[in-house]
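Lab notebook, entry 436. We have the chain sequence and a SMILES string for zinc ion, and the next step in the workflow is to get a structural model of the bound complex before anyone spends time on docking refinements. Request logged below.

Task: model protein plus zinc ion, output structure tokens.
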Amino acid sequence: MTRALLSALVLAPLLACTKGVVDPETGADTADSAADPTLGIGPAAVTPSGPYGEHSFDVPADAHWVNTGVFLREGETLEITATGTWELDGQALSTEGDAALGEQRGCALGSLAVRSGLRFEDALSCVGAGASFTAESDDVVYVGMIFATDLGDAYGERLRADGALQVTVSASADTVPTVSIDSLLDYPFDQVSSGWVELQSAHHLVTLPADQVVADMATAQAAMDTMDRIYEIEESMRGAAPFEGERIRWVPDASIEDFAYMLASNPVRGVPALFDGGEDQRILRAAEPNTDIWGFAHELGHCFSFVNGTWVYQYVNLESWPNLFTIRVLEELERTENQPNYETYCDGKESYLAGGEYETLAADPFLQLCFLKDFESEYGASFYDDFFQGMNSQSNSDIAYDGTEASIWGYVKGRFDLAAGQNTAEVFEKWGVPVE
Ligand SMILES: [Zn+2]
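Result returned:
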């Protein structure tokens, strides 16, 4: 790995996606085992209301935080005990992790940690073999291995972790049931005294107020089916699933409102309005023709474009590549109407090709998307299926990044030549994109 690549990893950009116009803003390698769709789901049978009682369940190191099923209000407490070992980078670790590896938010790397809510980079409490945890805010309580930042999770860092601890949680507090979309119509949402549930579909977990599920009952099933279809279309294009097939959790996070509309990772964090806001933006209305689903497909596009933690080739502009997935989704679902960006993403093409500066294309995620889509026009509808499936066997260390954008495009061109089965230089030249 070159020094420049190392600094790129240190400077891993925040995948902060804004509404409508996707602003560019502000990493990990390796791959591991096969898909495990149970990752991230905690105790199966918590009751709709408290007291929670005691539940034992596995906490896999590669799960992006496991819902304990407990809802703690400020000042309320739960007890956790844990046994077993899990692994980081192949090293077996106890519940206490290993302080020699470093620490993250006050806890030894590789240790068991607990958090109230999943607010971006919010405080953690260290658990180790056991601890009492008192909440400082009203929220769902999650547990998991701590070994990186929340941003690192976006870049696939959790692929370094494996194994599972056995965890027992006891509390007299209220509960957060996980409700399968298949039992939606039968579930007693009016008995959920915490006011919060996680809805579970084939590929997603959505953290929501119970009364919002009731309010959106007429559209919720179709919405979750649409979310699953979006996932499956992107999975088919990529030929692999992110986070080892773990469901993608979607959580409201008011703390990101100042800088983003949504933040890609697992969980995908969104402004609360995506859960309880306008008719044309709520996730439980995703199947309705007027709902803007660009953002949902785009965030998943980040996840699918980072499947194996190989992302440095996107470094020129991380907001263009995910939309190759977004566009595919909109076209396959026949949802191109009412999706404002779909009609306009190539608006800058004509003036750019008439003599624009490369820097404009580098900085503009939509113009760059238009450039990327040109390869599909030139080399066929399956061009990006072939490209992304080829990327499944690439790692960041395969990308000879020397600090220049030309070196990144040089790598991309090599992969594009393979996907096209021919030299793709013509399109790079047409768009004035430097290649070395
Ligand atoms: Zn984005």
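Notes for the group: Residues 117 and 305 are 26 Å apart (CA to CA). Worth checking against the assay data. The radius of gyration is 22 Å.
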